[in-house]
Amino acid sequence: MPKHYLMCRPDFFAVEYAINPWMDPDAGADREVAVRQWEGLKAAYEELGHQVSLIDPIEGLPDMVFAANGALVAGGRVYGARFAFPERAAEGPAYLRWFSERGYPTHEPVHVNEGEGDFLAMDEVILAGTGFRTSREAHNEAQEFLGRPVVSLQLVDPRFYHLDTALFPLHGRNIAYYPGAFSEGSRSVLRRMFPDAVIAGADDAEVLGLNAVSDGRNIVINSEAHDLQLDLKRRGYEVIPVELGELRKAGGGPKCCTLEIRGEN
Ligand code: ARG
């Protein structure tokens, strides 16, 4: 089944403030390299037969390339983002406008949440992270607007500040994750819900290997996540490694650059 993704070209990408431990404004980042790597990610999706739509980047919003944070879309309904840090605040309305202009039913959020960075939609439930960015109140707000059960998970390691830096759905009913990013209680929840999950180690997590995108068959993943790639291949997945090192300097990987537009169902 082809997917529909929304992406944002990193034309104004930079590391000029630090809102997560990956970001070092003194070291900065090379925008040209970032654009080239991002083009590679977009091409990988298109080669897999997926549709990529684009939102115009806005000058002065260097993190807007991380489209996953722009909203949560499920069943064709769009729950908007409300960013935790003022540096990214203007991205929320920009992404919401993109959807409302195209006729999607949208909800302007009351509570702080960073879209698909912290919400991962599966067949029966939506997994939701909290601890660094998205608030628990937003988990309730999303559940009410989308009419789907939301399961709250507590993040405890600042390097894994969004749920999508530590966990990704392999398909609608199973996941891969790095246990070290979660509280004891949330680890138990994950073990109960997903006894057959792929468990990643620290080496793969530390190169943002869990920030991957699966269409159920093909998995687009940071090239440096070696062990995880082997595990996934052993499980029968097609692995598509991508090089996104420049965007990792802002704390992002393939999933961060990708907002899935999920239609009616
Ligand atoms: N610099 C961005 C931030 O800290 C990176 C966002 C990464 N996005 C994600 N979905 N994990 O907000």
Automatic annotation (TrEMBL):
MF GO annotations: dimethylargininase activity
Domain of life assignment: Bacteria
EC number: 3.5.3.18
Keywords, in A-Z order: Hydrolase
NCBIfam families reported for this sequence: DiMArgaseDdahMtb
Protein name (record): Dimethylargininase
Organism: Nonomuraea mangrovi
Gene that encodes the chain: ddaH
